[in-house]
Design brief:
alpha/beta; Quinone Oxidoreductase, Chain A, domain 1; Rossmann fold; 2 domains; 8-stranded mixed β-sheet; 6-stranded parallel β-sheet; globular; disordered N terminus
Length: 394
């Protein structure tokens, strides 16, 4: 019998100043049509669209109870439990999605420990940033999707639930030919890599990309996107097995070690020129080494902070070489920015997952039942996984 799991709404985050189709940043300018989206959102908010729960409990007057992974208190994986929560009702511009699968991210681990609270509007006690599922019903103003459509997306939290309400412009169609457990491994990792490397970093054909933690979800996505663009990549990992697997995805130069091992390898690979774009997925003291990898006018995009929140930098180098240092996070961005990125991603990236010779593919380390969510968190914390750990909500 089909399990019933939880439901929440998404007000989540996504992209900053999106690039033009040729890869140039558009700065503060919004993509065509985004102003209309914003006006539509303001009207929707005034009509009650944005009245979202901040907790996973079941307040009176809501729909039938469904199941969700709930953080019962701050702590280790043992604090996670499947609990009953209220099923959301979609607003006029929203979809009600039967979530088939969600994928884990480092943010889920931090939220469970009480170190990374959910953004306003997202459930404080239900983790999960990305999902794939089937549309059950739609609000009266929805035009992009219908019941039965397969969709995926990035949310501010609450994806580890059976039911989820999401604005139609945040949702993306799933690639044709992929299972929902595969599609669930796409949104956060590939949207982050696409936004950071291409839209913010301006990575283009013939250039070099450098990325640390190359065996992570974002790392494996960045390597594939670079290859699809005609760019080349240098990546590091402390695990030889992960480097071998990354080569199979298109990594050109594999470096065993942490970020400090990258500058010499990049200089050798590029003939001393340096990389156009660096993605720092770790942060901390290694940030200085990532800056050393850049060519003059290069861009470093800081995506993660698992290595720490402090770093010693040579600002003289940044000044002399006219480097750009950009910080980015998807989770807490304004809704209209997330919508814009979702549209750009669906138009430009989703088709690259389709067909027998598709240049992109989701990298799934393992698929576990959400009954084993504690084991899934332990597996991610072990750093032994390559790619995404997916929870199947059945």
């Amino acid at each position: 019998m089909k399990r019933r799991g939880a439901g929440v709404r998404s007000t989540a985050p996504l992209s900053p100043g999106l690039a033009a189709p040729d890869g140039r940043r558009s700065g503060a300018a919004r993509p065509d049509g985004l102003g209309g989206i914003c006006r539509q959102l303001q009207l929707a908010a005034r009509s009650g669209l944005s009245s979202r729960r901040s907790r996973g409990g079941s307040p009176p007057g809501r729909g039938a109870d469904v199941r969700a992974v709930v953080i019962t208190e701050r702590g280790g994986p043992e604090v996670l439990a499947l609990r009953e929560v209220a099923e959301p009702s979609p607003g006029p511009f929203e979809l009600l999605v039967d979530v088939a699968a969600s994928a884990l991210n480092r943010a889920d681990l931090l939220q469970r420990r009480g170190l990374y609270p959910a953004p306003p509007g997202a459930p404080a006690d239900i983790p999960g940033l990305e999902f794939a599922g089937t549309v059950l019903s739609v609000g009266e103003a929805v035009t992009r999707f219908a019941a039965g459509d397969r969709v995926m997306g990035v949310v501010g939290g609450g994806a580890a639930a059976e039911r989820l309400a999401i604005h139609e412009r945040e949702a993306m169609r799933c690639p044709e030919g992929l299972a929902l457990t595969e599609s669930a491994a796409i949104p956060e990792a590939f949207a982050t890599a696409f936004d950071a490397a291409v839209l913010q970093g301006g990575l283009a054909s013939g250039q070099w990309l450098v990325v640390n933690a190359v065996g992570s979800g974002v790392g494996t996505a960045a390597v594939q996107l670079a290859r699809a663009l005609g760019a080349r990549s240098v990546g590091s990992s402390r695990t030889p097995t992960k480097l071998g697997l990354a080569r199979g995805l298109g990594l050109d130069v594999a470096v065993e070690g942490d970020s400090t091992a990258l500058p010499a390898a990049v200089r050798e690979a590029t003939g001393g020129a340096g990389a156009a774009v660096a993605l720092d997925l770790v942060g901390g003291p290694g940030l200085a080494a990532m800056l050393e990898c850049l060519r003059p006018t290069g861009t470093l995009v800081l995506v993660g902070l698992m290595g720490g929140v402090e770093a010693d930098l040579s600002l003289g180098r940044v000044l002399r070489q006219r480097l750009r240092l950009v910080g980015t996070v998807l989770r807490s961005r304004p809704l209209e920015e997330k919508m814009a990125l979702a549209r750009a991603f669906e138009d430009r990236v989703v088709p690259l997952f389709e067909g027998a010779d598709a240049p992109l593919r989701p990298v799934v380390d393992r698929v576990l039942s959400w009954e084993a969510v504690a084991d899934a968190h332990r597996a991610l914390e072990s750093n032994d996984s390559f790619g995404k750990i997916v929870l199947e909500h059945r």
